Amino acid sequence: MGRVRAWPVLTASTLGLLLSGCYSGLDGVDPQGLADDPLADSSGEGDDSGDDSGDSSGDDGPEASCEAPSVGVASLRRLTSFEYDNTVRDLLGDTSRPAQKSFSPDEQYGGYAANAVAPIAKTQLDEYTSAAETLADTFMETGLGDTIDCPMADTACVTGFVTDFGRKAFRRPLEPAEIADYVALYEDARGAWNGATGVRMVVEAMLLSPNFLYHMETLPEGAAETDVVPLGAFELASRMSYFVWASMPDEELLDAAEAGMLDTPEGREEQIRRMLEDDRAADTIASFTTQWMHLEGLPDKVKDAEMFPQWGAPLAASMEEETLAFADEVIRRGDGKLETLLTAPWTVGDDSLAELYGVAAPEGGFGVIDLPPTERAGLLTQASFLATNAHAAENSWVHRGLFVRQNLLCQTLPAPPVGVEVNDPNDAGRLENQECKSCHTMIDPIGWAFDDYDPLGAFVDEGEPGEVIGASVGQFDDVVALAGSLAAAPEVHECVATQWFRYAARRSETVADSCALDQIKATFAESGQDVRELIVAVAMSEAFGFHKASE
Amino acid sequence: MRGAGLATAAGMGLPFLSSLGARAAGDEGRAKRLIIFCSPNEPIERSYWKPPGQGNEYALTGLQPVMSSLEPHMQDLLLIGDLEMSSRLDDPHPGGHIGIGHLLIGRKTTPIGPNEGQQWGSGKSVDQYIGEKLGVDPLTLGVRVSGSNGNSRISYLGDSQPVTPITDPSVAFDNLFADALLPAEELAALKAQRLSVLDRVAGDLDRIKSRLPAEGRNKLEIHTSMIRDLELKIESDQVFDCDPTEPAGIDYGSNANFPKAIRRQIDVMVQAMGCGITDVASIQLANSGASNITPIWPEEGIDINVDYHNIVHNYNNDPNNATIRSRREQVEAFFYRMFAYLLDQLKAVPEGDGTTMLDNSLVLWMKPIASKHRFTEYLFMLAGGANGQLNTGRFVSFSGKPHNDLLVNLCNMMGLDDQSYGANAYCTGPLALG
After folding, report:
1. Are the C-beta atoms of residues A40 and A16 closer than 8 Å to each other?
2. How many CA atoms lie within 13 A of A391 on its CB side?
3. Which of A83, B40, B230, B283 could form a disulfide with B290 if both were Cys (CB 3.0 to 4.6 A apart)?
4. Is the pLDDT of residue A378 over 90?
5. Any CB–CB contact under 8 A between B23 and chain A?
């Protein structure tokens, strides 16, 4: 892979100009966060306003007042596949993960699976119907014993079941009319067939109910569409559990909601911290990390068979597991620090990864392994990231560089103009070409630094030491140095806070969210970038407890 | 035997959205059915698809070598060259592949984010429109259609209302036929139970709807209409006078089984039509960019360890490189072979009076973008006799005409007298197909 390393040294001033060139004249595109470019400016005076404008879209809009609760517009969302599977696990004890196996993919919004825009389609209804029938059958055979311990031919018995099971399935107590409707469904079925069939049909209907399938947040009576309205206690409990656990509330959380304990910040925080200690928090950390690091496409990645004979589903699975186990180790059992995520000279790997990294294999499957600190620094040097953001036989400056821009600095760069043919994936000529260079000078030099790692993530040391390829975040001469600079950059801290906000809200932030987001960023900073405190801060932010349906 | 309240379902005056199996009156003078075949990405440049001949309109005497698998069907084909996608040329949304959301709609897309793929089609697609007018429920199939975004959908019920394709032939088969294969008594109980459950769900939808803001209410209205459709389908007591063959149970989602999955989806589609379940269907191969398709298919005589997306780009960058060119040609030939397989299957089903299913059908072949990621100089193909309405065995060029015009022809040949489709600004009326 010999290539000429002939990057121009990019100075702060030239890159600053090029930045504006990258997003000028783009119709219908609202670039985010390009004003503050930590990779561009070392003088500390690059931004003309100096205000905190780097992270939200529409910065030129009116500043939101922080006196009254303010929150961006959110739409009605269906559960994601991951949430569905976790919810049936916690509701029914069913670990078959039907959504992962057979549901159509989730629609993304704001960078995370959301199911927020398109309404349900017929195929999805068929998927839900089929899953509900199977889940209800299995529940009658295996899970019911713990839930119902009275005769299923008895209406009083089943009324109790509808009341208790319904409260979990709908994540709120059922209204008397709802209980009556479900009991009627049961009684009709008992008349036609038998009591057990009636109970099964109740379970099936609840699994198909909108109260189960959607994150239901109602408009309080008398409220206007455009009002910022507080969530009901049970709606808040659901938001909390789907954020911290990616699943339904447990009994204790529902009880706390019912007892009004979530109405006070103390009560809310107590529950959030309890949930964060629970193992189910691992699901949210995994879900966030998978989506933030773009790991979904890893198993489908194609690698050149001659160059990388070891590539295949097992290695891809190990790579994915490495990153998720590493994130979990840092956030739930380690110091929780973003700096550790971005710079740790160790990982959690198995023998296949140890071989790739050129270190001794851990004993017995996955374990913590130390890595050469001159070669490896946290997430950006993990094989999952490097392999995902590379082609079959070549690295991708664009994918690797764009990731840093978009996911660590929260900058949105436009797609190439319509009709532009993509050149050689790694073509230094793009920096000379007038049409390409305004954006590619932001992307390619970062991606180029990653050429020390091959398309599978092995260290190959392509770089000549001391080469300066980017000015500021300080200058960096390899990815380990880049990772260190990023870990220390306030823009990265703010972006990671923004990413967690987007994950929680399942949408992009708007100007109406800026008070909440500023508070979240401040709390994250005060904690020394402790991701656990960031999760608490998001769930504790005032906006988290409010809903707005329309502008 | 039915749960309480079900009797009311039919009497509620709900829109009769799907009357499965029902045929609109007067099949004469129109194609019996419409089949849409969406091949991914782009064709190779014009010299690879413009058949040998002179002028803007001529009879076919042969096809280009990459399309040779279609030669046995030459007299079934009308090649339509050089249309442009005017709505895409006007669409400010970025990305090379978003033409897929224009194909059957003919309108600019609706953005839901700033990046490629973060958009939805913005109107009813022509397959859904024709299905609605004919009173049939279109069958929407796909194979390895990754993601759920504007680059992975062709069919829409309306603005930002994509139709999700069924991507597994076994699931498609079960949805269409499994119930009908059950013993009558078991089926009757199952239907009654399903209707009771769905009726309860519809009740829940009605109760919660009124407490939601308009945005959520609208979504639940659509959800309710889907439930009602499902109830109607269950109630329809459809009897099939056919004996469908179930596809073997393999992993149809894998890259390795992509060719098998295409053939089995085509089989299921042709059987569904032969059994009279629907008259409108589409099959979409991969998403627009098709980067998750890697032609390592030795049984197809093709073994290239580069994904299709990059095969296309590599060729466009370096068309004179023999290896790269050969890869490009092999993959393109493969996708034409899959289309030929569809035509083979349609031709194999006799339909009385010495005609075949192909003679009575109208088949559209399309790709989301034109050569070199442009939106001009498209290739479309129509196939089948369309019940005597299509003059095949020809090539015709409509240089610069908007592709919306072709969508009008589809409507007309399916018995509808529309004179425009999609946004009026991008439509000049039906093409003079001759």
Report:
1. yes
2. 19
3. B40
4. yes
5. no
Residue from the list A126, A201, A210 with its beta carbon closest to the beta carbon of B205: A210
- Which residues of chain A lie closer than 8 angstroms to B294, CB-CB? 302
C-beta contacts of A148-153 below 8 A and 24+ residues apart: A148/A199, A151/A195, A152/A195, A152/A196, A152/A198, A152/A199, A153/A190, A153/A194, A153/A195
What number is the average pLDDT over the span B104-122?
94
Q: For chain A, give the number of residues.
A: 551
Token reading at A102: 């057979």
Q: Is the dihedral of CA B408, B411, B416, B422 positive or negative?
A: negative
Q: Which of B109, B122, B219, B232 to mutate to test the interface with A (most CBs of A within 10 A)?
A: B219
Q: Is B207 on the interface with A (CB under 8 A)?
A: yes
Is A181 at the interface with chain B, CB within 8 A?
A: yes
- Round to whole Å and give the CA distance between B15 and A353: 58
Residues of B numbered 73-132 whose beta carbons fall under 8 angstroms of chain A's beta carbons: which are they?
92-96, 111-116, 118, 120
At B249-291, the pLDDT tens digits run 999 999 999 999 999 999 999 999 999 999 999 999 999 999 8
First to last CA, chain B: 56
Tens-digit pLDDT profile for residues A485-523: 999 999 999 999 999 999 999 999 999 999 999 999 999
Helices (H), A209-280: 210-213, 233-244, 251-258, 265-277
Is residue B232 predicted with pLDDT exceeding 60? yes
The answer for A 333-392 residues in CB contact with B (under 8 A) is 391-392
**Alpha helical stretches, state H, A118-154:** 122-138
Helix %, strand %, coil % of chain B (to 5): 40, 15, 45
Higher-confidence residue of A83 and B310: namely A83
A527 vs B305, more confident: A527
Query: Which residues make Cβ contacts (< 8 Å) with residue B147, sequence separation at least 6?
Result: A105, B117, B287
pLDDT at B12 over 90: no
Of B148, B200, B226, the CB nearest to A122: B226
Query: For residue A10, what are the CA distances in angstroms to A16, A400, B181, B409?
Result: 10, 19, 70, 56
Flag whether residue B254 sits within 8 Å of chain A, measured between CB atoms: no
**Which structure tokens are listed for A281?**
């928090």
Asked whether A464 and A41 are in contact (CB, 8 A), the reply is: no
Helices (H), A279-389: 281-292, 313-328, 338-343, 351-357, 383-388
So what's the pLDDT on residue A12?
Answer: 28
Q: What separation in angstroms does the CA of B390 have from each of A132, A220, B394?
A: 46, 58, 10
* Min distance A106 CA to chain B CA atoms (Å): 6
Selecting from B192, B218, B317 the residue whose C-beta is nearest the C-beta of A192 gives: B192
Report how far residue A310's alpha carbon sits from residue A327's, in angstroms, rounded to the nearest whole number. Answer: 25
- Does the pLDDT value for residue A49 go beyond 80? no
Residues of A in contact with B84 (CB under 8 A): none
**Average of pLDDT values for B224-251?**
88
Domain boundaries, chain A: 7-41+76-215, 295-488
Instruction: Give the burial class of B104: count Cβ atoms within 10 A of its Cβ; 0-12 exposed, 13-18 middle, 19 or more buried.
Output: buried
Residues 220-249 of A with CB under 8 A from B: 225
| Amino acid B434: pLDDT | 85
Average pLDDT over residues A390-408: 89
State the nearest Cα–Cα gap between A346 and chain B, in angstroms: 32
Q: What is the pLDDT of residue A31?
A: 40
Three-class SS of residue B66? Answer: helix
Contact criterion met (CB < 8 Å) for A391 and B198: no
- The per-residue pLDDT for range B361-395, each reduced to its tens digit, is 999 999 999 999 999 999 999 999 999 999 999 99
Distances, alpha carbon A85 to alpha carbons A81, A122, A213, A247, A295, in Å: 6, 20, 11, 8, 19
Interface size, chain A vs chain B, as Cβ–Cβ contacts under 8 Å:
192
